[in-house]
Amino acid sequence: MMNIFTIARRDFRSYFNSPVAYIVITGFLAIMGYMFYFGFAHYVAQNAQYQQFNMGKSISITDGVIKPLYGNMNLIFLFLVPFITMRLFAEEKKLHTIELLMTSPVTLTEIILGKFFSALGLVLVMLSFTIVYPIILFATGNPEIGPIVTSYFGIILVTACYVALGILFSAMTENQIIAGALTFATGLFFWIISWAASSAGPVWSDVLMHLSLIDHYSNFGQGIVSTTDAFYYLSFIGIGLFLTHRVLDSFRWR
Questions:
Q1: Which of 15, 32, 34, 130 has its CA at a distance of 20 to 30 angstroms from the CA of residue 247?
Q2: What are phi and psi of 86, to 5 degrees?
Q3: In this structure, what DSSP letter does residue 106 have?
Q4: Is the whole-model pTM more than 0.85?
């Protein structure tokens, strides 16, 4: 565990030694701030209309703000995570420091997990800034705490899947642009794979729905923690890291 922590800390600090972390965090906060502000403003305007015309029950803050906000956050991370992960192994290969890393007194598993947790750590830092949104909602309304907590849990699992994909493709090439592009394309594929479910047969429909990254998030957005969904995400992460191990292990014997 100490070796994993050392590698994770070294790579995490390296993000802040370059403009990468600052650009990604600034872009993320700008986009999410825009979404929160106008989403909240739209929610207030809709409820004002409901009250004005006596249209009955108003929209809850959970349905009007929380669900769309955190649902869209998954999409934003789909665009941003490739910038975080593309350098993890690709840069090591380009600078020819991968040989030193592979021959250091740490296992390949520790190297992979260290880099995985360094990227996930940056994601958690970005998420920590968004805690201000629930604080504002609690100060101005009465949102449900359950969907907020489970939404954060679901987002962490989804972004961990993106990170696992990013590490895999970063290990496969020394070109950071290619690694980032492949990470985004593959992540997007697992996002939209369920779109074909309606035109597929009953068996393939279930398969496509099960493979979809975002469909497994829907329960988390509603305040439900499903062991099936959590197992899917953990399996996805495990397979991504296992394939990364196989790629790097083959590189070792070249």
A1: 15
A2: -65, -25
A3: S
A4: yes
